[in-house]
Write a structure and sequence with these properties.
The protein is mostly helical. The chain is 74% helix and 4% strand. It is built from 26 helices and 2 strands. The protein has a two-stranded antiparallel sheet. Helix 4 packs antiparallel against helix 24 and helix 13 packs across helix 22. It starts with a helix and ends with a helix.
């Protein structure tokens, strides 16, 4: 029995996420050791080691799209791109570990960030192409690698730092071992990575698609029959009364498509897919809407034939319903200036100044506490991974129920509370609880914003990928300078409380933009009113 390649790629995506996100989320464990090796550097400068990684990772993921096209044109396998990600991660860790100048360490962070982007950030963009009907479920399974990776690398890094405690600079051998591990795992995971051949996914899911069509045609709910017996001249005659509920058919299809658009199927696919996903997404949405209506109309026509009637069924009503589903296309410039996109980018711009602060400065904060547990920092960071893992497994259904906007607001209100409280936690249990809550809610930043964009601009799916890319670029200033500014605040105030207060207030300001977001229906109405389409 041949194994469907999609499942191997799903496993590889899980491993790549495990490596990339897991190793990045534990970068804060090195800050205390780096401060001892470079005593002249303050916490703001040292924070660059972590922020350079995330910025380089986002930038290299865009470059990876161009690299993908380059490889395809020359008939080179996509495996080399993910293998290259592992190479850059190895180079980044080794370059930093061999550097005795702080800025050379930062060059190592840059190389490591490029590896994160090529190896980890782009993996989901390949995985989503191998599944259509269960795309959301499969992708969320792959993304659980982020949480498990955070748990593993937090424990492993902390254990290695403690093991090499007899060495003057224990972070150097630790980085080499972690880099080697990342390279080996990325090399193995890159082997199955490839794009599906035309029709390969459709062929695999054809049997399920066929059974779905048959079940809709045979569904009893839209067609009601009643049997009436009368006697004429001693002959019993059965009259078959069919009542075709076209309104119910239409409502079922509309509700299905609303649910499909709200789910992570569209959102997560668009969020991390590169240029080749563009055409697929556009085709995928149109294909689903078209197929559903085609089946509904076929059911109506088939029922009409049973009656033996030549009269058209609700011709005017059907035309109106189908016209309601016809998509109205807007230009990218028109969508850029729309209310949802402007407010969402304002939220991302502000919140990214503080979103990395807690996980970067928790380890040095824990080092100032006299708890006596040398592995506490690694344990707390692993709890962030536990929260991330459970978040991926549970919040998808919550977003479908209450909407991505409301869940995002709730998540970042909770994060603001965590930002205010973390410098007051002084026990193992309290710090672990803080780490878990932060990991559980901050995970929504990678998925919910793109769900909001996908909902608001579902009539123009061809621009969602571009809007997502612009939103990623908007995050750069916050990621790059937020932790640096916080580091200077910590040095100036001599503690972490002022930094936490500023972080909590900034998170609340960012969340305020979300309250002003219009609903998808209101956004479509605004676009129609402004541009007359």
């Amino acid at each position: 029995m041949t194994i469907y390649s999609g499942y191997l790629i799903l496993l590889s995506t899980f491993t790549l996420k495990f490596v990339a996100i897991g190793s990045f989320n534990t970068s804060g464990l090195y800050l205390g050791n780096l401060s001892e090796s470079f005593p002249d550097a303050n916490k703001g400068t040292l924070a660059l080691y972590c922020t350079i990684q995330i910025v380089a990772g986002l930038a290299s993921s865009f470059a990876g799209g161009l690299c993908q096209d380059y490889l395809e044109k020359r008939d080179l396998s996509l495996q080399w791109q993910f293998f290259g990600g592992g190479v850059f991660m190895l180079l980044g860790f080794f370059w930093s570990s061999l550097s005795y100048n702080l800025w050379n360490v930062m060059i190592g962070a840059l190389l490591l960030g490029i590896g994160l982007g090529l190896g980890g950030f782009m993996a989901s963009g390949i995985a989503v192409l191998w599944f259509e009907k269960k795309r959301g479920t499969m992708l969320l399974l792959a993304m659980t690698g982020e949480g498990i990776g955070s748990i593993f690398f937090s424990k492993a890094t902390a254990a290695l730092l403690q093991h090499y405690d007899y060495v003057d600079e224990s972070w150097r051998p630790t980085m080499r071992w972690i880099g080697l591990l990342c390279f080996v795992l990325c090399s193995i995971s890159s082997i199955p990575m490839k794009l599906p051949l035309p029709g390969e996914v459709e062929k695999y899911e054809k049997s399920t698609e066929t059974s779905e069509g048959v079940s809709l045609l045979n569904a009893p709910s839209p067609i009601k029959t009643s049997k009436r017996s009368t006697s004429e001249g001693g002959i019993v005659k059965d009259d078959l009364d069919l009542h075709i509920d076209t309104a119910r058919i239409r409502q079922d299809i509309i509700e299905h498509n609303k649910s499909w658009r709200r789910s992570s199927i569209t959102a997560l696919a668009v969020g991390e897919a590169m240029s080749d996903t563009h055409n697929l997404l556009d085709f995928h949405i149109k294909k689903r809407v078209k197929k559903k209506w085609k089946r509904a109309v076929s059911a109506i026509v088939a029922s009409n034939r049973l009656l033996g009637s030549q009269k058209p069924l609700e011709r005017v009503e059907s035309q109106t319903s189908l016209s309601d589903l016809s998509s109205t296309s807007y230009t990218l410039g028109e969508l850029l200036l729309s209310r949802t996109n402007v407010l969402m980018n304002a939220f991302l711009f502000v919140v990214c100044f503080v979103v990395l602060i807690l996980q970067l400065f928790l380890p040095p904060y824990i080092a100032t506490l006299d708890i006596g547990d040398h592995d506490l920092a690694g344990h707390v960071l692993s709890m962030i991974g536990v929260g991330s893992l459970l978040s991926n497994l549970s919040l998808g259904s919550v977003a479908d129920r209450i909407g991505a906007k409301h869940l995002t607001i709730l998540s970042f209100l909770c994060i603001s509370v965590v930002q205010f409280l973390w410098p007051y936690a002084t026990t193992n249990i309290g710090l672990s609880f803080i780490g878990f809550l932060f990991g559980y809610f901050v995970c929504t930043l990678s998925s919910l914003p793109i769900i909001i964009l996908a909902d608001a601009y579902s009539e123009s799916p061809e621009h969602i990928l571009a809007l997502s890319g612009i939103s990623a670029m908007v995050r750069f200033p916050g990621y790059m300078s937020g932790c640096v500014i916080t580091g200077y605040l910590i040095e100036w105030s001599g503690g972490y409380k002022l930094a936490s207060i500023c972080s909590g207030i900034t998170t609340l300001i960012a969340t305020a933009f979300l309250f002003c977001l219009p609903s998808p229906e209101e956004q479509q109405s605004m676009l129609t009113e402004r541009y007359g389409k």
